[in-house]
Amino acid sequence: MLGRLSWAAIPFNEPLPLISAAVVGLVVLAVMVTVVVKGWLPYLWREWLTSVDHKRIGVMYFTLGLVMLLRGFSDAIMMRTQQAIAVGTAHGYLPPDHYDQIFSAHGAIMIFFVAMPFVIGLMNFVVPLQLGVRDVAFPVLNSVAFWLTASGALLINLSLVIGNFARTGWMGYPPLSELAFSPDVGVDYYLWSLQISGIGTLLGGINIVTTILKLRAPGMTYFRMPVFCWTALASSLLIVAAFPILTATFLMLLLDRYLGFHFFTSDAGGSQMMYVNLFWAWGHPEVYILILPAFGVFSEVFATFSGKSLFGYRSMVLATLAICILSFMVWLHHFFTMGAGADVNAFFGIMSTVIAVPTGVKVFNWLFTMFRGRVVYRTAMLFAVGFVVTFVIGGMTGVLLAVPPVDFVLHNSVFLVAHFHNVIIGGVVFGALAGYNYWFPKVFGFTLDERFGKASFWCWLVGFYLAFTPLYVLGLKGMTRRLEHISNPGWQPLLLVAEAGAVVIMCGILCQIAQLYVSIRTREQHLDLTGDPWNGRTLEWATTSPPPPYNFAVLPQVETLDAFWDMKQRGTARPAPAPAYEAIEVPRNSPVGIVIAFFASIAGFTLIWHIWWLAIIALLGAAITLFVFGWLDDREREISAAEMAETERARSGRRQFA
Description:
Blueprint: H1 15-37, H2 41-49, H3 54-85, H4 96-131, H5 139-158, H6 186-214, H7 227-259, H8 272-306, H9 313-326, H10 342-354, H11 356-370, H12 379-401, H13 404-410, H14 414-444, H15 450-477, H16 492-521, H17 563-570, E1 584-587, H18 592-608, H19 612-630, E2 636-639, H20 641-654
Antiparallel strand pairs: 1-2
Helix pairs in contact: 3-4, 3-5, 3-16, 4-5, 4-6, 4-8, 4-14, 5-6, 5-18, 6-7, 6-18, 7-8, 7-9, 8-11, 8-14, 9-11, 12-14, 12-15, 14-15, 15-16, 18-19
């Protein structure tokens, strides 16, 4: 009846998971009770949970990323503490089995449920506004994509207390992930949570590509689009091209585990190295799926806070497209040690070096944008400057690892761990936090507290260098990856420094929480009544903060790059005294996304535990939901010209123009 699920799935003999689950459960319960008691549930259902507005979906993506950042960072600091104290004869506080689960969960969560929601959330909110349009191409599909991602996050967190998680590392390499070596449900949690969220990511990528290619304001040609739109387009094209590879790879591993296939087993003609090739054929484009939108954020921030147009706009676009193409030609540098031969290794080593060239072009363009500009060091700009310094170091170590003989020595060491975090934290996380501080007033109508914002930046920057610079040294000394216990006591001083760095990063996260709390408490003092708090250059600043559901009452006419800056220079940024409004249609809210996510969560959980009858019911429920929605005719509502005029008068009354 319940397949493999029994009371034995609850880890009653392990206090750490139970305590963690209890704390999370109490927090969730407290939030739910507060929502019900305060009477907020109808509002949340109507305005958020069933919303198909790209802006609210973008906010929900980013919120999911922030919540999962707390979970993923808690895993990180637990691992760092274990390595700092489990030296020599000491064994630390984490048993090897639990450490391996935390190790695997940390990587999967940070990539799929922190970094991806951050960048997709920013793209969802900003891209339609920068294009000067009213919504994404497929609003309901957008909702489905988000809720599928949230379903994957739910499943991966359930593994904390019901069953266990994979002990394979976040990459799930066979043969360790095959049934013979991982007979429990840990790998199944890994596969189904990432399959479900991956489908959501693919749908979101299709949506962004279609929106950019087909929905742009009148006059906005490709080479009048902001750089962030170009990086969002390149990232989404990579999603559309790369995520099917991951889906197919995981499907083959599922067939190995569930039906006894032999895609990745050494017997019956399978090959574990085929999994590694396929995984990294997705995995290295994934690095650029994450970093390209961050590049776009920094391009907007550098231009705005330098008071200048971005230096070398066309070269930035061409560099973005070059990275998009070259990212599919470098995957084998993740396993030079496979033994493919000197010719193959030489090709991928050269390509891994070549891809650094367009990235270098971007760095010089950002520096030249600042040159002779009127630089204002707001929090977002501090993250951008910190990114340049940190990312250049990460890039240099990446070029070093692109040399096959060097990689043979360093591949399995913590030097590689330091390099990877150098790129992801210094690039993606700094980019997400820069975008968060930069566009927050556009989202909510008030700016964030600068004191706590700057304190958060310095904690992140100093904490990063303390946490990961020692790993470069330890890697050169021979410390390998994935260690639960450290045999060499001479490494402990540097591990303690790395532990101190993790604590400083935690202080940065606490400063961000304090920043949000203080900003909400003092929001009346920081209201954005202009819609343009930073003297911006692109069209998202042309509408009010927060924007209306339809974004623009009258679609802007674009005549040049930096369209809003041009409008301000020509004195046409202020709305006309009596524009001729026309009735428009906007999509109705739809519960289809959250309903499909409900069925997807049940299907994933029951497939993990082999509860076949309930899995079939859940899959049928999802199919019926899609079928019923597909036959609905009443999907849009009309906003009349009179209603729009009244709304715009009310919003203009609150807005103060410079």
